[in-house]
């Protein structure tokens, strides 16, 4: 293990000053300093995330014998704090590298001003990030040196080496990780981070942040679960003494346990209960007067008649919405039943559909059905929403006026049977596969 890594285990954070004050520089390990910013009063991030404990914008300065690298920056509102901290550990003339692991504004707010102060700094960004960088710097882009990185590329700071890992879509297309080889320190940007502000900074000193860690995964990483798996495959073979994300605590105590926890979070829960050939079809419905419920039962009967399809039916009025999201994430096909009330689908169905932005829906089979009294728009509206989620909708939904007849219930059974055949590859699509477009 590298000597710097040993020091990291023994190091006690040297926090100078209170949270958010300019002099609060922290030595992460020998030659590596936290120069970020704390935002304890933030209560909502990017509109969709609640932040009960605020957040941190973690930026790092790495000193080598032949220069200093800055790893990410901070949100623009905290530029003054960032620059005062940076000036405590390096002169601008010493900065040879600016590594941008991800170019969302909360990581790049200080970049234009930093480059104005240190124009000699060479920028390192992923291939997918170059367009975002150009948009950020606008007409000044051509003034600076920039290298697009890929897995295995390296930057020398003399006695220290930064190497890059391409980890796209965790959670933006441009994301990469950076590894300080001699110190076994991995800078992961948003991966393995969380919105949790505590000026003690290190996971073995801060308060209990388990909820924030999993909440962040659920809302930021979960929709990109398969890309997280690919990122873990790259990261896990490394010798890792410390993980330094861009939000939340620095993971210096048992960092590999957090990698293992991510493995558990991305692992399909149904995998051990169904065999590799079996497909799952979930049927959700709301019924005002029992007609849509009758349709749901008939669709279930038809779907269940096809071998290797496990169908389930759920009345949305009988449960909270949140647990269903977990089921949907691993399902192969989804069917939504709703009556049309006041020209719209019912709220419970929309609530469930809106919750699906947190999981990957592309390519899942979708269908809709429902009873109506006058106009019956709800089925088509639900189908449009499913297409917007990049689901494939191979069958036109079933709409029945008022209560179904025996003949109409048979139509529902045929509908369920046809959906199951599509799941098993035996169906013939009657509509365009919208997930294949764009």
Mind explaining what this structure looks like?
- It is a single chain.
- Helix 7 (225-235) packs antiparallel against helix 8 (255-266).
- This protein folds into two domains: 3-266, Metallo-beta-lactamase, Chain A, CATH 3.60.15; 279-436, Flavodoxin domain (Rossmann fold).
- The relative contact order is 0.09.
- With 438 residues, it is an alpha/beta fold.
- The chain is built from 13 helices and 21 strands.
- The chain has a seven-stranded mixed sheet.
Number of H- or I-type helical stretches: 13
Low-confidence stretches: 1-22, 432-438
Report the average pLDDT across residues: 91
For the record, give the distance between the C-alpha atoms at the N and C termini, rounded to a whole number: 47 Å
For this structure, the CATH topology of the largest domain is Metallo-beta-lactamase, Chain A
What would CATH call the homologous superfamily of the largest domain?
Answer: Ribonuclease Z/Hydroxyacylglutathione hydrolase-like
**Coarse structural class:** alpha/beta
What is the CATH class designation of the largest domain? Alpha Beta
Descriptive keywords:
Metallo-beta-lactamase, Chain A, 438 residues, 30% helix, five-stranded mixed sheet, disordered C terminus, alpha/beta, seven-stranded mixed sheet, Rossmann fold, 2 domains, 22% strand
Summarize the structure.
With 438 residues, this protein is an alpha/beta fold. 30% of the residues lie in helices and 22% in strands.
Fold topology:
Blueprint: H1 3-10, E1 26-29, E2 32-34, E3 37-39, E4 44-45, E5 49-50, E6 55-57, E7 60-64, E8 67-71, H2 79-89, E9 95-100, H3 105-108, H4 111-117, E10 122-126, H5 130-137, E11 146-149, E12 154-156, E13 161-166, E14 176-180, E15 185-189, H6 210-221, H7 225-235, E16 242-245, H8 255-266, E17 279-285, H9 291-304, E18 309-315, H10 322-330, E19 333-337, H11 347-354, E20 365-372, H12 378-388, E21 398-401, H13 406-423
Parallel strand pairs: 8-9, 9-10, 10-11, 15-16, 17-18, 17-19, 19-20, 20-21
Antiparallel strand pairs: 1-2, 2-7, 3-6, 4-5, 7-8, 12-13, 13-14, 14-15
Helix pairs in contact: 7-8, 9-13
